[in-house]
Design a protein that fits this description.
The complex is a heterodimer of chains A (297) and B (443).
Chain A (H helix, E strand, L loop, with lengths): L7 E12 L2 E12 L3 E5 L6 H9 L5 E9 L2 E2 L5 H7 L1 E4 L6 E5 H16 L6 H14 L10 E2 L5 H15 L3 E5 L7 H14 L5 E6 L12 E6 L2 E6 L1 H10 L2 H13 L8 H19 L8
Parallel strand pairs in A: 3-10, 3-11, 6-9, 9-10
Antiparallel strand pairs in A: 1-2, 1-4, 4-5, 7-8, 11-12
Helix pairs in contact in A: 3-4, 5-6, 8-9
Chain B lengths: L5 H9 L12 H16 L16 H4 L4 E2 L10 H4 L10 E6 L2 E2 L5 E2 L6 E5 H7 L1 H7 L10 H8 L5 E5 L9 E7 L8 E3 L2 E6 L4 E10 L6 E10 L4 E9 L5 E10 L4 E8 L4 E10 L5 E10 L4 E10 L5 E10 L4 E10 L7 E10 L5 E10 L5 E9 L3 H8 L5 H17 L5 H18 L1
Parallel strand pairs in B: 1-8, 2-7, 6-9, 7-10, 8-11, 9-11, 10-12, 11-13, 12-14, 13-15, 14-16, 15-17, 16-18, 17-19, 18-20, 19-21, 20-22
Antiparallel strand pairs in B: 2-3, 2-4, 5-6
The chains are: A alpha/beta (297), B alpha/beta (443).
């Protein structure tokens, strides 16, 4: 499915971002081509969710540097709704509940909004009903959920399935799944993962943000990136995830630290210092190589 | 020199150009009117210095000169005029009042089962004098509430609904109160009155609807009294969709007998300044009450709702959810009192006040009050005031919806939760449309 000739969907160059004046992302580089599945892993607080939200355009985060090209277009200058209409989809870790709005009405509203944007055909409620019944099968969702208010009273697993149902309806070019595995039991995990697999085509791509290997047992990543302190510090294939599962994250950090030291920087020890040094290294190498740490260069 | 008394100002403003005592009807009714008129002339009128009125300044009202609507100056209103408010479910069970005066040509009561009486009060007096006399103004505290006294002193006509023992009224009863705005450029004051008696074991759905045909300044001073017999059940939807320049003052009282059930949906969209005082008393054991409320206002509107849920007997239940949405420079007020009397053991009462502020200048004051004198009860209350949340907006934006669409969807959803509970489908549809329009108008 993947070839070096695949079209680049997402190009992230030296992206940094802050929230409430605190810098969280400190120079992210990532290239995603069509047909690829990328997993971004890392411990809590490493900036994974921030990265997802920055890509989707969350207003609470300020991009302080770098650029993001989505199919060649500057993504950062677009408001979140235009990013979505252009084909960026974020599956939320904590989807919100909208009491009073039925799931089917909401799905139809978003579908028709996107169709209008793409010049496609909008569907009336009857046509949409047929369309959505098919999509429900992808995530094994009981159609009775369509009559319920959006996410209201849904279990964790149902909410995540509903997110993937929205993904199925909106047919994005790039889907970012923010900890879609959290709060799922093993059956729900299998259903959600199988849904994502069914939606994968050679023309789209997925970025999965996750803590654990277990989701990757069901969705095989082409690339695994380890994120730490706001930067991707290691990239590998699917076997890297297995290694992380057995060895944890610290060894990656140590390895990265050694590389930074070898780069000729001061070798003052201590985790706090290590972070600061890694930053210096990151920006230096980014300035030089442009896409250090990029996945598929 | 003494500053002009607030009462004098009100009396000057609302000075009836017709003598309220000269109304038709039996002696006991004339005596009641006279008693109320005495209260009108002696009771203090509320100002913002009164704790119960501190947020609702009716000052503007007493600066306007009103004429009392009288039958002979009631303007011609046609069926076509009221078409937008007609409910198919109540096509044969509708009483219409224009500026508080009964309009027989717009009203229909046909095919109702024996045991259901719906008529205007004046006509009802000839056939049901005793039952009217036994209930009219009996629950209402007009000796202490000036506007209730004012209404009572003006009783000329009104809506009468009687549901006999063990009778189920098959269609919702639509009581439509139409304001025509100013007549001959004079702001009108009208005094609508409803008397509803649901005898033991009966059931009915009631829609009390205040609408206007044209925008303008006018004053509605309404009183509704509902008596619910043992094991009877009444579902009461009250809509206040007056002109945005109008004043609306309303008292509602409901008395619940043993095992009875009262469900109320109170919706307020209209009026420049509105106030709704609602008092429900559980006079019998194991009575149940559900109160849903919604105020959606903008501009310089004020909507004040004061409710009293009085649990006087054991094993009663009450559930209340009141929502206010305020945009622009609007001001919504909710004051919800729950009393659990000494005898009312095993009462289960829950009240929620949830509020949405849409602009920096809008204001919402909410005050839940619980007074419990019994020791074995379950009572809960909660109040929240919030703005649209960034996370909610972002979620919808991330699905491709514009900020405006997302905002409207969230406001609509917040309001719809209450509207959806109304038991009349065509009314839900009508109100949902109004909601959408009103929300769009605000943006």
């Amino acid at each position: 499915m993947i070839s070096s000739n695949s079209k680049v969907i997402l190009e992230v160059r030296n992206l940094s971002a802050s929230v409430a004046g605190i810098e969280i992302l400190k120079g992210i580089n990532l290239t995603v081509r069509s047909g690829e599945v990328h997993a971004i892993m890392g411990p809590n607080g490493s900036g994974k969710s921030t990265f997802s939200k920055v890509l989707a355009g969350h207003p609470g985060y300020t991009v302080t540097g770098g650029e993001v090209l989505f199919e060649g277009q500057n993504l950062l200058e677009l408001p979140p709704e235009e990013r979505a209409r252009n084909g960026v989809f974020l599956a939320f870790q904590y989807p919100i509940e909208i009491p009073g709005v039925s799931n089917s009405a909401f799905l139809r509203l978003t579908y028709n909004t996107q169709q209008a944007h793409r010049g496609g055909e909008e569907l009336d409620p009857l046509e949409f009903n047929d369309f959505i019944q098919e999509k429900c099968k992808i995530v094994e969702m009981d159609p009775s959920f369509l009559d319920r208010s959006v996410n209201e009273g849904f279990s964790g697993g149902e909410k995540k399935r509903n997110e993937i149902l929205q993904m199925a309806v909106l047919d994005p070019r790039l889907a970012i799944l923010d900890e879609t595995d959290s709060g799922l039991d093993i059956d729900a995990l299998r259903i959600v993962a199988s849904g994502v697999n069914k939606l994968m085509t050679p023309d789209n791509a997925v970025i999965m943000v996750t803590h654990y290997q277990r989701l990757l047992n069901y969705i095989t990543p082409d690339f695994v990136h380890v994120m730490r302190r706001g930067r991707i510090i290691k990239t590998g294939g699917k076997e890297l995830a297995l290694e992380l599962e057995t060895r944890g994250y610290d060894w990656v950090d140590d390895e990265h630290q050694s590389a930074a030291d070898a780069h000729g920087r001061a070798s003052a020890a201590g985790p706090e210092h290590a972070g600061a040094e890694a930053d210096a290294h990151g920006s230096a190498s980014a300035a030089g190589a442009g896409r250090a740490g990029a996945a598929s260069v | 020199m003494k500053a002009p008394d607030v009462r004098d100002e009100y009396l000057a403003s609302l000075a009836p150009d017709t003598n309220p005592l000269a109304g038709p009807g039996p002696d006991w009714l004339n005596a009641l009117r006279a008693e109320a008129a005495a209260c009108v002339n002696s009771l203090p009128y509320p100002t913002t210095h009164d704790e119960e009125w501190r947020f609702t300044d009716f000052g503007l009202l007493r600066k306007t000169a009103f004429a009392s609507a009288a039958a002979d100056i009631s303007p011609e209103v046609s069926l076509a005029d009221i078409a937008p408010f007609v409910l198919p479910e109540s096509e044969k069970s509708r009483l219409v009042f224009v500026n508080g005066i009964y309009a027989p040509h717009l009203s229909v009561c046909a095919g109702l089962p024996q045991g259901v009486v719906m008529s205007n009060l004046a006509a009802g007096l000839s056939s049901h004098d005793a039952v009217i006399r036994a209930h009219l103004a009996q629950q209402l505290d007009f000796h202490n509430e000036a506007f209730a006294a004012l209404n009572t002193s003006h009783i000329r006509d009104g809506a009468l609904v009687l549901i006999a023992k063990d009778t189920a009224c098959p269609a919702p009863i639509h009581l439509l109160f139409i304001a025509t705005g100013a007549t001959a450029n004079t702001p009108q004051a009208s005094y609508p009155r409803c008397l509803v008696i649901a005898e033991a074991g009966s059931t009915c759905a009631l829609i009390e609807d205040y609408v206007c045909l044209s925008p303008g300044v006018y004053f509605t001073d309404a009183v509704s009294e509902i008596t619910i017999g043992e094991n009877a059940s009444v579902e009461h939807t009250r809509l206040q969709r007056e002109s945005h320049s109008a004043f609306h003052m309303a008292y509602g009282v409901a008395a619940l007998a043993r095992g009875s059930n009262y469900v109320a949906h109170n919706i307020a969209f209209g009026a420049r300044i509105s106030r709704h005082d609602l008092r429900i008393t559980q006079n019998g054991e194991a009575a149940q009450c559900t109160l849903n409320g919604l105020a959606l206002i903008s501009g310089r509107q004020i909507a004040d709702t004061h409710t009293v849920m009085d649990h006087a007997k054991p094993n009663g239940q009450s559930t209340q959810l009141h929502k206010c949405i305020a945009d622009g420079g609007a001001h919504a007020v909710f004051n919800g009192k729950i009393f659990v009397r000494k005898d009312a053991q095993h009462t289960n009462a829950a009240q929620q006040s949830r509020n949405l502020l849409l602009s920096n200048k809008a204001r919402i004051d909410t005050k839940p009050q619980l007074e419990i004198f019994a020791d074995d009860v379950k009572c809960a209350h909660g109040a929240t005031v919030s703005q649209l949340e960034t996370e909610e907006m972002f979620y919808l934006n991330s699905r491709g919806l514009t900020t405006l669409t997302a905002r409207n969807l969230l406001i609509y959803a917040f309001a719809e939760e209450i509207v959806d509970r109304i038991p009349v489908p065509s009314l839900i549809k009508q109100l949902s449309k109004t909601l959408s329009e009103q929300i769009l108008e605000h943006t």
